[in-house]
């Protein structure tokens, strides 16, 4: 299963690639290990991926892998849909060197082959045919991308694999410290605001043929795990999928929620189903949290399936919503 794409009226997903070479974040000047000793990384398939040395020219076929590379100080040479990435992921911006390699579901094998890559980072769920074609040309590291049984553990397992492959393990340790410190600060603020234990229902939604489908981020989703870590509770009554913790319901399904804080994500370029389609819906207007004004839209550019930096953004945005 690939990382679910947010669809708000239209489907999204195009993979871009290019670049003259890997660049390093100046603030992490020593992040990429020197030397060229062989490296072996066991990926999420249990497969040993053998590299001649730390991978410097790297491409990624999903945005979680892209964000994690950039956060580790490795600017990818090729990226899945950089334009879409820039719309959805503000935590780890790309530079102008990144080029297009096709769509996230169907990366261009020719584009990948032309870049002189050391490694391609792929998220589990890429079609097997595409994976085989890429792997016949370039070493491939398959990261898990999500695991509802342990979403935060899965996230840092992926970061650790990428860090080992790129020789950026010190940067990975710093990224973990930044994540832990950010969530600890947010938890302290939640407690100061008297909101510890509050129930928060987080979702996104999309429109199909005039009907709104709501996607609850149930227990097991990465965003929910972050909210729980800072002291909030997940009230969604349904179970999500085993990888991303995502459920599905409609506006009638929202009547099963208690009187909660209702938070959601939309994207300015694709519209806001809650504000634009459900605004005149009698069921929506009658919900207790709608009537008391406890509905809050999160800022654009927070990727729900992202890396540690995106998750710290979610913790900060949660605190801002509680203050508001």
From TrEMBL:
Subcellular location: Cell envelope
UniProt keyword annotations, A-Z: Signal, Transport
SUPFAM superfamilies listed in its UniProt record: Helical backbone' metal receptor (SSF53807)
UniProt key word Transferase: no
Keyword Transport: yes
Cross-referenced InterPro entries: ABC_transptr_periplasmic_BD, Bact_iron-sidero_bind
Origin: domain of life: Bacteria
PROSITE patterns per UniProt: FE_B12_PBP, PROKAR_LIPOPROTEIN
Domain Fe/B12 periplasmic-binding intervals: 57-324
Chief location bin: other
Similarity comment: Belongs to the bacterial solute-binding protein 8 family.
Protein name: Iron-siderophore ABC transporter substrate-binding protein
Highest classification ranks of the organism: Bacteria, Bacillati, Actinomycetota, Actinomycetes, Pseudonocardiales
């Amino acid at each position: 299963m690939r990382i679910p794409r947010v669809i708000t009226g239209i489907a999204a997903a195009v993979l871009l690639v290019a670049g003259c070479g890997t660049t390093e974040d100046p603030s992490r000047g020593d992040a990429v290990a020197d030397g060229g000793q062989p490296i072996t990384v066991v990926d999420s398939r249990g497969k040993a991926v053998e590299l001649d040395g730390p991978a410097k020219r790297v491409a990624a076929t999903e945005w979680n892998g892209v964000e994690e590379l950039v956060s580790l100080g490795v600017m990818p040479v090729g990226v899945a849909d950089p334009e879409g990435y820039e719309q959805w992921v503000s935590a780890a911006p790309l530079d102008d060197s990144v080029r297009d390699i096709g769509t996230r579901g169907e990366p261009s094998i020719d584009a990948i082959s032309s870049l002189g890559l050391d490694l391609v980072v792929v998220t589990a769920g890429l079609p097997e045919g595409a994976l085989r074609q890429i792997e016949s040309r370039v070493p491939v590291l398959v990261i898990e991308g999500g695991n509802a049984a342990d979403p935060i553990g899965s996230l840092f397992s992926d970061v650790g694999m990428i860090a080992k492959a790129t020789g950026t393990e010190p940067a990975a340790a710093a990224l973990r410290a930044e994540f832990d410190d950010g969530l600890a600060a947010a938890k302290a603020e939640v407690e100061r605001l008297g909101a510890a234990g509050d129930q928060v229902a987080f979702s996104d939604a999309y429109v199909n043929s005039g009907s709104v489908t709501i996607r609850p981020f149930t227990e097991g989703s990465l965003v929910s795990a972050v909210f729980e870590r800072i002291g909030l509770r997940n009230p969604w009554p349904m179970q999500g999928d085993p990888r991303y913790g995502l459920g599905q319901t409609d506006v009638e399904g929202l009547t099963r929620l208690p009187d909660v804080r209702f938070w959601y994500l939309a994207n300015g370029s694709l519209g806001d189903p809650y504000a634009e389609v459900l605004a005149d819906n009698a069921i929506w207007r009658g919900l207790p949290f709608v009537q008391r004004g406890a509905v809050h839209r999160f800022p654009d550019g927070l990727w729900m399936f992202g890396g540690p930096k995106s998750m710290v953004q979610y913790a900060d945005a949660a605190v801002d919503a509680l203050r508001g």
